[in-house]
């Protein structure tokens, strides 16, 4: 594990991770906005084999009524985490480390397989932008549709349309069906709609890279504005410069585990160093007990 100041940055081993309790934020006398305790998340891939007579008999004998899992994969392991009001968190880690999965868990897209997740406040996930868009509908109709999915009424969204057009520069294309938008135009619209709301907790996954260079600058500016208005922000990005610029606390993930938590400069420094010297493998741990019900 890379070295750093022991007073500020916490380096986690498995045993520390399991013994660390998540307590009330006594310093401020308030509950943290986000609390994760002993969280693990498992993906199960089901086989798509042909349904043979032999398999049918086996399933009857074994009294199985659902497909047999082909393989399972723990994308998150033993995560304990507290995020307080006003924190700007940047998450780093190599491909497949579990960063996006952690954001999806905080957005309640995935439930944990073990442990508890508490999120206090309205969450705006800039995660799968444009996921709810309909390519047959116009840009304008998609703005209203997406707003409805985020919980806004038609009237509330109509009041936001002008601002969205202003920001995206797509006013002239408002009546064009989305299927004729270029990928850059699509990304602009999705980003414009998703950032038009004022969330308490903002989750951003690699969204700083949308559109062309000029739009990326506008997007960053927009995120800065949102960051000023929201209570907590969590950014996942491989653009380390942006994380250094926008965040104060860093989390480093490796193979589904939180391996370090501390001031952003220290975490980024150690992470960059690790690309020259690989991160030691986390100690093998016992399978977490599954939550029932
Ligand atoms: N729905 C899923 N089903 C099965 N495995 C999944 C699923 N989603 C993610 N994974 C796996 O979980 C692991 C963590 O993925 P995740 O997308 O969270 O990584 P990441 O740190 O965001 O990576 P990157 O930097 O490449 O975006 C990967 O091995 C990925 O293949």
From TrEMBL:
Extent of Polar residues compositional bias: 1-10
Biased composition (Basic and acidic residues): 11-24
Residues covered by the ABC transporter domain: 56-280
Signal sequence segment: none
One Pfam family in the UniProt entry: ABC_tran
InterPro entries the UniProt entry points to: AAA+_ATPase, ABC_transporter-like_ATP-bd, ABC_transporter-like_CS, ABC_transpr_TagH-like, Bact_Polysacc_Export_ATP-bd, P-loop_NTPase
Keywords: ATP-binding, Nucleotide-binding, Transport
Positions in coiled-coil regions: none
Region annotation (Disordered) ranges: 1-24
GO molecular function: ATP binding
Record-linked PANTHER family: TEICHOIC ACIDS EXPORT ATP-BINDING PROTEIN TAGH
Similarity field: Belongs to the ABC transporter superfamily.
Name assigned to this protein: ABC transporter ATP-binding protein
